Amino acid sequence: MSGGEIFEGIKQAFLDFDSEAVKSLVRKALKSGYTPNEIVEYALRPAMETVGEKFEKGEFFLAELVEAGDLFKEVMDEVLTPEIEKSKEEVRLGTVVLGTVRGDLHDIGKNIVAVMLRVAGFEVVDLGVDVPPKKFVEAVKKFSADIVGMSALLTTTMLEMRNVIEALKSAGLRDKVKVIIGGAAVDENYAREIGADAYAENAVEAVEICKQLLERSGP
Ligand code: HCB
User: Which helix (H) or strand (E) holds 51?
Assistant: First the structure.
């Protein structure tokens, strides 16, 4: 089976909500040498995008969105996260305060970013979902964070990212922390527009960018 065939197989099994087939194919992909990130980016995330499109077209309903979320989490918890954790770096980089912004309950992507950052050596303070600006600010102070990472998947909640940046400014913290944003609702232009330091397309990019941001804020 080629990479393309394995990824297509995973995607199809995912859209059939066949969890055993998904997990077995994901294990097969790992054995064939694909990284957890490649499996997320080329199979699982595209499957989620198709679920979203079907939801938009009225072919899937909220029940399928929930089921897709649960299935993704099951594959992460049982197969991919343990695999990612095998490559944990014994270094201590900076502290990242991470959360999904107020009004938004999507946390799958944010959780992947958290795992990847921890494995790379970052201390991650995960504030969870539906996080108001005040909580980001408090956590930055309490943990002397180097970086704030925000996630948003809704066009309505992405607006909250600007509020968090404004709250950091009001608390006099904006020049002490770097800000990175991500999630399906946002992009590079939006990051620039709201005054974030960076946008990351995926979890691997988020780790690389956080390392660069630390270098830029270095002594
Ligand atoms: Co949700 N939902 N949903 N949903 N959902 C989306 C996001 C839509 C795009 C689907 C669609 O219509 N096409 C849509 C939003 C449309 C819009 O705003 N324009 C939508 C909607 C409408 C809704 C509800 C309003 C539905 C309703 O109730 N009628 C509702 C809102 C609830 C709320 O948040 N207040 C809702 C609910 C749900 C759940 C709860 C059922 C479930 C989430 C479960 C969970 O997360 N625990 C869900 C799901 C699963 C989705 C889709 C299908 C998948 C999201 C996902 O997990 N993707 C999504 C469709 C889509 O995304 N295209 C759909 C996979 C992850 C791995 O990708 O992009 O999150 P990611 O993360 C990447 C990347 O962005 C980056 O790294 C990750 C790894 O590569 N990254 C960061 C992420 N965060 C980062 C932060 C950083 O600092 C840096 C990088």
Answer: helix 45-57
What is the distance in A from the centroid of ligand 1 to the CA of 11? 17
Of 112, 85, 202, the closest CA to residue 126 belongs to 112
**Hey, what are 139's tokens?**
């956590």
- pLDDT tens per residue across span 144-192: 999 999 999 999 999 999 999 999 999 999 999 999 999 999 999 999 9
Ligand 1 centroid, distance to 175 Cα (angstroms): 30
Say whether pTM exceeds 0.70: yes
Q: Pocket of ligand 1, candidates 15, 55, 106: which has the most ligand atoms within 8 Å of its Cβ, to mutate?
A: 106
Q: Which atom of ligand 1 is nearest to the CA of 149?
A: 88
Distance between CA 57 and CA 134 in Å, rounded? 37
C-alpha of residue 168 to centroid of ligand 1, in Å: 25
Atom of ligand 1 nearest to the CA of 41: 80
Mutating to test ligand 1, I would choose from 41, 153, 188 the residue with most ligand atoms within 8 A of its C-beta, which is: 153
The confidence score (pLDDT) of residue 219 equals 57
Nearest to 160 by CA among 77, 101, 93: 101
Provide the phi-psi class of 198: left if phi over 0, else alpha when psi is between -120 and 50, else beta. beta
* Residue nearest (by alpha carbon) to ligand 1 atom 85: 182
Residue 98's SS3 state is strand
Are residues 161 and 181 in contact, defined by beta-carbon separation less than 8 angstroms? yes
Q: How large is the angle between the packed helices 3-15 and 45-57, nearest 10 degrees?
A: 40
